[in-house]
Amino acid sequence: MREPGLPSLDQLRVFIAVIDHGGFAHAARVLHRTQSVISYTIANLEEQLNVALLDRAKRKPTLTEAGKALLADARAVTAKVDDMRARAKALGAGLEAELCLVVDIMFPMCLLVTVLEAFRREYPTVSLRLHTEALGAVMQMVLDGRCQLGISGMPLAMPDSIERQLTGHVTMMPVCAPHHPLAAIEGVIPTATLREHLQLVVTDRSPLTQGQDFGVFGRANWRLGDLHSKHALLRGGLGWGSMPQAMIADDLAKGRLVPLKPQDGATLQYPLFIIHRSDDPLGPAGRWLRQQFLDLDYGLPHDAF
């Protein structure tokens, strides 16, 4: 038995059209060809593949078992080619092939999902790389050119090469577990009292702010690499610390965590800035994504953090 030949893309499209439009005549009208040309193309395809794709015994051609299996392959091949053509067209028009985004760990994840869902619909050919970092590490990745866009949560002194714009705020709330000693204190808690208890804080992996403390009161503190670890240790009663209010809303409602009232204030508005390099202009997808973050309504409920 001879080896199958190499079918053309046109043959595969004709094959798909015959099935999708219910026969040779309908496919001919859709493709603006004669019925004889459609029939001849399918016959050539069958000859190339060395299998019968259609059963012509009935008035309306139906797929053979081999035709059913190979139709899925034909659809996959033509879809890949269509994707390639769409990507090539977009690249020719100046659209980015890939976009890298780094987001502060305090950014509400449900809002991020909403933005990226819209991004995928708007720019299906643009690949996205997403990083989550803390403190100065966000700006470091943008400054180094590893990411085109960043959502930074620290109002750091930024070099001239970085442009930033305030996009919103996240409410931070100091909390502890209900069985933690601080939970038994009613009313305002003096800073001196807070200093006596272990504070859980997120560490910084960037040299821009390495060694600097932001909102650290406790004489004893544990430095954690991510927000979810901090969340788990807070619920376990190992210490106290501030968390994004949206992330712990369910814990507060169910009593797994309780709010504290430090004398410096019960909550803190954590700013979020959209940043990018001024000497590396954003492409169409980057500019669109930047605007989506600026248009976000941070006042909306976002309990699915």
Layout of helices and strands:
Layout: H1 9-20, H2 24-31, H3 35-49, E1 54-55, E2 62-63, H4 65-92, E3 98-104, H5 109-122, E4 127-133, H6 137-143, E5 149-152, E6 162-176, H7 191-195, E7 199-202, E8 221-224, H8 227-235, E9 241-244, H9 249-254, E10 258-259, E11 268-277, H10 284-294
Parallel strand pairs: 3-4, 3-5, 7-8
Antiparallel strand pairs: 1-2, 5-11, 6-9, 6-10, 6-11
Give the tags.
single chain, alpha/beta, 2 domains, 11 strands, elongated, 305 residues
What does this structure look like?
- With 305 residues, the chain is of the alpha/beta class.
- It has two domains: 9-93; 99-109 and 127-276, no CATH class.
- The chain has helices spanning 9-20, 24-31, 35-49, 65-92, 109-122, 137-143, 191-195, 227-235, 249-254, 284-294; strands at residues 54-55, 62-63, 98-104, 127-133, 149-152, 162-176, 199-202, 221-224, 241-244, 258-259, 268-277.
- Strands 3, 4, 5, 6, 9, 10 and 11 form a seven-stranded mixed beta sheet that branches.
- The protein is elongated and about 90 Å long.
- The mean pLDDT is 86.
Mean pLDDT: 86
How much β-strand is present in the residues? 15-25%
Poorly predicted runs? none
Spatial extent as radius of gyration? 29 Å
How do the helices and strands follow one another from N- to C-terminus?
HHHEEHEHEHEEHEEHEHEEH
Number of strands: 11
Quickly give the structural class: alpha/beta
- Main sheet properties: 7 strands, mixed
Distance between the termini: 60 Å
Give the % helix: 25-40%
Q: What global shape is seen? A: elongated
**What is the count of structural domains?**
2
Number of helices: 10
